[in-house]
Amino acid sequence: MAEIKLHKNGTYLCLLENFYPDVIKIDWKEKNGKTVLESLQGNTMKTKDTYMKYTWLTVPEKSMDKEHKCIVKHEKNKGRVDQEIIFHSVNKELTPINSRKGSLKDENETLRLQAMNTSAYYTYILLLLKSVIYSIIITYFLLGRPALCDLKGFAPWVHFSSLAIVTKRSTEDIENLPF
Asked: Which residues, by range, are in coiled-coil regions (predicted)?
């Protein structure tokens, strides 16, 4: 809208993604016209295993009421037929800024997204809290409870080491042992 009011022209943008190989030709024409229009194109960019490219057409105010098409020539087009992407008139697609219906729709969508995000946040917090409580309970039962049998005074390593000492000493020394 601002571009149309300020510069008296409009811009169509065509983004082509997921094509391979990277050799591609893009032209712009009026919908029922034969003349190729002057347009600008970005560089072909590699994205993972495929490529993407964008092109844009700036139309003067006198051509904004006409439909335009982006013509894509690529070897992977079905039947080797050029693919045509139709862009409707800039003037037909504009919605007045003061439109209450459009703003209510956007407002409802924003509220719905906000409610979903809030719900997801509280669900995450609840699950995290449950996990912490569960971990505390399990830790208490594994480490905090007394053992099933009384281990006071039971130290098997002491008895075994004492036994080893007893077998190596004489009977006179046994009477002098500290236990």
From this structure: none
Q: Residue 126 gets which letter from DSSP?
A: H
Q: What is the pLDDT of residues 116-136, one digit of tens each?
A: 899 999 999 999 999 999 999
CA distance 101 to 141: 60
Comparing CA positions, the residue from 12, 23, 13 lying closest to residue 77 is 23
The pTM of this model reads 0.46
Per residue in 79-127, pLDDT (tens digit) is 777 888 888 886 654 454 554 454 556 677 888 888 889 999 999 999 9
Torsions phi, psi for 84 (to 5 deg): -120, 130
CB 97 within 8 A of CB 1: yes
Residues 26, 31, 34, 38: what is their CA dihedral angle, to the nearest 10 degrees?
-50
Cβ of 145: how many Cβ atoms within 10 Å? 8
> Dihedrals φ, ψ of 33, to 5°?
-95, 165
